[in-house]
Structure formats: structure tokens, C-alpha cells
Amino acid sequence: MKFIRPFFVATRLWLVLLAIVLLFVTAYAFPILFALAQVVFLIFIFLIFLDAWLLFRVKSGVFFARRELPDRLSNGDENPLSIYLENQYTFRATVDVIDEIPFQFQRRNILFQARLNPRETQVLRYELRPTRRGEYSFGAVNVFVMTPLGLLKRHYQFEQGKTVAVYPSFLQMRQYELLAATNRLNEVGVKRMRRIGHSMEFEQVRPYSTGDDARTINWKATSRRTDPRGTTLMINAYQDERSQPVYCLIDKGRVMQSPFNGLTLLDYAINASLVLSNIALMKQDRAGILTFSDHVGQILPAERRSGHMLKILEVLYRQKTRFLETDYESLYANVRANIRQRSLLLLFTNFETVSAMHRQLPYLRRLAKEHLLLIIFFENTELRSLLDQPATDTEQIYLKTIGEKFSFEKKQIVKELAQYGIQTILTAPQNLTANTVNKYLELKARGMI
After folding, report:
1. Which domain CATH number covers 158?
2. What is the extent of the structural domain holding 59?
3. Which residues cross the membrane (predicted)?
């Protein structure tokens, strides 16, 4: 059984066998072909034994494969994986490689074909995009090796069983971190914010640059500055406000379970919270997390100690969906009990109607009195695509009329919240991260946090 188990028949063998059968059938009509058919059949049997001998003459160690994948995968991103192949046969091998990927991907097309010369190595690269956080179990890497004859296949299995965790989008976080460090955040849609105000903490006197506030010109220092080419204006530079608490409040209720491009709104909120927390730490602020649904889940106090980003990543990774109605009264009570200092609260939720917002408005107003509250909710992208299409019949006119009503209610929610001094972001899911970072930088530039 050990010998038969890796033994497979290639498609070419069946085609050649079919051709020989047709040759024997033809020989009944033309007996002169019968001897030729017998010779061809004997040669065919000999080639089968020769092919088997080439493939199985060495028990092991003649072919090697290894799957190379990261320790963890990034949710919602294309994660690079590769398969390393090494041919130790003395002939040019044709290989079929089938990778047993986790069932969560629902893909059965991870099949690669390659040709390797003797002693040659090759790397096959592909990408996977997970859409759920959690543990993903990879199976074996199956390799089917054929000789140049291509009649038989020898089956090898490598990398038996490996489990990888899928975390919130740390690839997106690293992208924003790198762009922020090189002042290229505008490449992902983050606008440059001109600082309107400043704190009263003096930092230094420096030369004037275009865009600086003229009210900060230090005339005494300017008069002492002599330059053969003319007078150089000097200004007082002030430090930005630092170490401000920034909390991401993530709604895990049923309103956040709507799907978009494979991910739920909850996962979009988690990915955006991870990026924003990292940007806040880079801006010398303190970042914290609070999750809630029918009751408050996990609270991670706002800090900026070494390793705090890893704590945020672990907290976001463990969040699970609850399909119950969100309890904003419990949220307010816990925020009041656990967040004593005035903070920026970024509330990731979703309101579909004005009446749904009105039910929670008393608690939102109380939060806005004690903290700077920013509510982030989502546009219905399917509804937007419907409204952008012209109506061609009566049914579509009715559908567009209903769609316009829901779209108007979203805009009405923004206006009503603004009346109570509550900041809002109404965004499509794919633009959530960039719009959230933009708003955070805007509030910081305006000196509101």
C-alpha cells in the first residue's frame, strides 16, 4: 500500500491507451495493422515500466517543497505566500502543485504547474485575502512529479497541518505608518492639515516659512537678525498639544454586521481603529479601545507605553460579533466611570434612520458634554449605486424614490448631530480609514484635542 499510495496516472497515459485501442479496432478492418498494434502496445508497456522506474527508483529525498507564509495574516489585505520547490531528480521534472488552503477562503483553484531542470529550484508566489479574523488551518502541499514521458505521476506531501492567525489589518497600519514617517500620507487620501491654533507651550524661535501664522512673528528677534540680502522674519514656534487621550469606541451590535466587499462593517471599524491608534501614538497622543454591544465588552485604557500597540492589536483580534441591540445607556455609564479625563471619542457605529439615532441621542449628547465626540457611520453603497442609475420603468422609479428617502435620512442625521456640537463622518466603507485619519488630524490642527 505504501508503494501504491503515491502512484497516480497522468492524462497522457489514458490518451495513448485510447489511441492504441482505436488502432486495434482498426486492425479488425485492416489485418495488416494488427502486428503494428501489438508492437506499439508492447512499447507502451515498456515505457510505463520505464517511467515508474525513473520516478520510484529512489524512495525519498529526490524532490522537496516548502510553503513559506508569515506568522500571521492581515485581515482584508492581499497577503503574499510562496511555495519553494527543489528538484533532485536527474531529469527535467514537470510538476503539478496543489496547496490545501483553509476552508474559509472557499477556493479550490490553488493549482500551479512548473518545470524544473535537474538540481534546479523555483519559487511559486500567490496571494490570499482573508475576510474574517481568527485561526486558519493550512493543509498539505501536494506535489505531483512527472518525467519527460509524462505517463505516471509520483505524489509527494509536505507541510502537514499549520495554523496561522488572521489579525486586523496590520499591513494597512504599516502602510500608513511608513507614509506618515515620510510625509506622504496624501498618497492614500489623507489631506495636509494647516494648523490653525497652537498651544501656549513655547518651543523655539525659528525663521518664518510660507504658511506660518503671521501673529507669531517675534519682532524683537527679527530686528536682531541681520542678513546681507535683507531682513529675515523670525517667529515663535510652539509645541503641539501632546498626550491627549484618544479612544475608539467600537459598536459590535447587529447594525455593524452588514457586509461590504467580503468584510463586515465591524471589521472595517476594527481595521480603521488599528490604523488610527497607531497614528495617534505617532502624534504623541495616548490611544485606547472600548468595545460594546448589549453590554460593554473590553476596555483598554489610553496609554502610550512601549508595547501598547501590541496590546491594541490583541484586543481587536479577540473581538467577536454580538447580534443583539446596542445599549448606549450602558456605554455612557462605563465611559463616565472609566474615562475621567476629557478625551477624543471616535464612535464607530451605524444609523440607518433618524428615528434610530433619536433613540440614542440623549446618551450621545451626554457623552458630547464631557468629551469631544466624533460619530462615524456608513453610507449604503448599494443604495448609492441604485440612485446613480437612470430609472427606465415605473418599478425603478419607486425604488429610487425609496432610496432617496433613506439617503436623505443619512444626511439629516449628520445635520441634527451637528446642532448639538457632535462631530460626524458619513463615509463609504472603503474610505473609512483615510476619512477617519483626516478628521483626527483636522481636529488636532484646530486645537480641539
Report:
1. 2.60.40.10
2. 1-167
3. 39-56
